[in-house]
Amino acid sequence: MADFVRLEYKIDGENFTSAGEASVMVKRNLRQMGFDPEVIRKVSVAMYEGEINMVIHAKGGVATVDVYDDRIVIVLADEGPGIPDIELAMQAGYSTAPDNIRSLGFGAGMGLPNMKKYTDEMKIESVVGVGTTITMVVYV
Amino acid sequence: MTVQELAKALSLEVLAEPEPDRKAAGGYTGDLLSWVMGRAAADNVWVTIMTNINTVAVATLVDVACVIIADSAEIDDDVVAKAAEKGVNLYRSAASAFSLCASLASLL
Description:
The complex is a heterodimer of chains A (140) and B (108).
Chain A: E1 5-12, H1 21-32, H2 37-58, E2 60-67, E3 71-78, H3 86-89, H4 99-102, H5 111-117, E4 121-127, E5 131-139
Antiparallel strand pairs in A: 1-2, 2-3, 3-5, 4-5
Helix pairs in contact in A: 1-2, 2-5
Chain B: H1 3-9, E1 13-16, E2 27-29, H2 33-39, E3 45-48, H3 53-62, E4 66-69, H4 77-86, E5 90-92, H5 97-107
């Protein structure tokens, strides 16, 4: 296995206004490592959407970003309520976000579709009542 | 065109201008943040009435050239401070998003 750099962040589920801190840190780290701006944009937007989801639905979780020479692997793991119907959740426009979140400009039902759009591979593993783990890969 | 030149041309109120020489190319308008993240491009001018702290995070991640708050929408001081800290050029105007975009279309 090739060498990689691991970046790990705890996503604070209590503080909605600080959501995005981890994504912004990843962006900065990737920029320092000299990655192409478009790759950085894809990784940081996909991760931010995931981060927001974890704050809205799962009271936070853990984000792990493994940086290889040829790809970046993002794993977002939470112990939230799980996703009962992944196919439905993936549909653009479908949202279960509460009204207070919508008033902040989220809840448009574009989070998961954006994560898929901006990554080359995406896998959702979810068990209702146990949690959700999303693995995303962006090729460099 | 730099964002500073653009701000002058549109008589925008300067809230934060940490990168005045940033070049602007094209634009996007919208208030649903995921929609903006899915559609806006790097170096765009982003016109919105959404002024909470997440606006700054989205502007940073999408890497827009600047954000213009339309309709003189209220914005908290801590959001303005965060924009300055994160290198996000932030302007405001009394004009509507429609009017701002119409003017931008002839400038960009």
